[in-house]
């Protein structure tokens, strides 16, 4: 797998899955334009960072225009920017916080994909990979906001795939399971939580960002040219249990 002379946009690159995706693309020879509300620690001559919110339509549009002016192409997008929910039952959720989860996890994915797709369509080639979650279809208490946002990402992925199929642009999503990231560390650093979680995973361990980004690399590559509209689980087998 070689991404030389290819340009990718990756959101959420300051940490976790987004950062792992950016770093793995760079290892494979690609150019990465990262976007995150925070600064990035990635130091690489083929990496360029935009400090922005994916919910800011004007900022997203400006980033895409800048990328096209400089590189003249966008070969792929990874929508990894996201936040966790309020961890409350839905009937106690603050409406504003509920909307914020939808804005970042869903609207942000929509906006980045929208403007990137417009740039890809004339070239009739491209890949969009959205990060969903097992919580789009396997639920537990107190996550209506997060589950709604990720469920919508999965549905939107399929709809986007149909819209872009005539232009040879494939759109898929990856559903991570229990993955150790900066967002989940506070929970998984507790031995009892980690052990309990690992007992639920057939492969017996938590996922790491690289486990997820490796699946993303496949979906960004030519190897996945006949896949579109698919949600790929990367969860150590968690979702197939009874």
CATH architecture: 3-Layer(aba) Sandwich
Low-pLDDT stretches are none
Rounded mean pLDDT score:
93
Strand residue percentage? 15-25%
Number of domains: 1
Succession of helices and strands: EHEEHEHEHEHHHE
User: Count the strands?
Assistant: 7
- Dominant shape: globular
Name of the CATH class = Alpha Beta
In helices, the fraction of residues equals 40-55%
In order across it, which strands form the biggest sheet? 3-2-1-4-5-6-7
Question: Span from first to last CA?
Answer: 36 Å
The fourth-level CATH homologous superfamily is NAD(P)-binding Rossmann-like Domain
Largest sheet: 7 strands, parallel
CATH topology heading: Rossmann fold
- Specify the number of helices: 7
Describe the structure.
By secondary structure, the chain is α/β, with parallel strands linked by helices. It has one domain (7-234): 3-Layer(aba) Sandwich (Rossmann fold), CATH 3.40.50.720. It is built from seven helices and seven strands, in the order βαββαβαβαβαααβ. It has helices spanning 16-27, 57-71, 95-120, 144-164, 185-188, 191-199, 209-220; strands at 7-11, 31-36, 47-51, 76-79, 126-131, 169-176, 231-234. It has a seven-stranded parallel β-sheet with strand order 3-2-1-4-5-6-7, with helices on both faces. The radius of gyration is 17 Å and the shape is globular.
Write a brief caption for the model.
The protein is an alpha/beta fold and 242 residues long.
Write the layout of secondary structure elements.
Layout: E1 7-11, H1 16-27, E2 31-36, E3 47-51, H2 57-71, E4 76-79, H3 95-120, E5 126-131, H4 144-164, E6 169-176, H5 185-188, H6 191-199, H7 209-220, E7 231-234
Parallel strand pairs: 1-2, 1-4, 2-3, 4-5, 5-6, 6-7
Helix pairs in contact: 1-7, 2-3, 3-4
């Amino acid at each position: 797998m070689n991404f030389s002379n290819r340009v990718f946009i990756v959101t959420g690159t300051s940490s976790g899955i987004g950062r792992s995706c950016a770093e793995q693309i760079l290892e494979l020879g690609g150019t990465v334009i990262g976007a995150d509300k925070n600064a990035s620690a990635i130091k690489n001559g083929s990496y360029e960072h935009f400090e922005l919110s994916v919910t800011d339509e004007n900022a997203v549009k400006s980033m895409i225009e800048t990328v096209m002016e400089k590189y003249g192409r966008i070969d792929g997008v990874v929508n990894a920017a996201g936040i966790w929910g309020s961890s409350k039952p839905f009937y106690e959720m603050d409406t504003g916080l509920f909307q914020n989860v939808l804005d970042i996890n869903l609207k942000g994915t929509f906006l980045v994909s929208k403007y990137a797709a417009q740039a890809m369509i004339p070239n009739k080639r491209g890949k969009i990979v959205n990060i969903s979650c097992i919580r789009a279809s396997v639920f537990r208490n107190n996550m209506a906001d997060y589950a709604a946002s990720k469920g919508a990402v999965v549905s939107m992925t399929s709809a986007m795939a149909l819209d872009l199929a005539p232009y040879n642009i494939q759109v898929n999503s990856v559903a991570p399971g229990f993955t150790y990231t900066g967002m989940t560390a506070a929970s998984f650093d507790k031995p009892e939580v980690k052990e309990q979680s690992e007992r639920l995973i057939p492969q017996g361990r938590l996922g790491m960002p690289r486990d997820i980004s490796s699946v993303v690399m496949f979906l960004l590559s030519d190897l996945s040219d006949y896949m579109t509209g698919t949600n790929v689980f990367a969860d150590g087998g968690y979702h197939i249990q009874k």
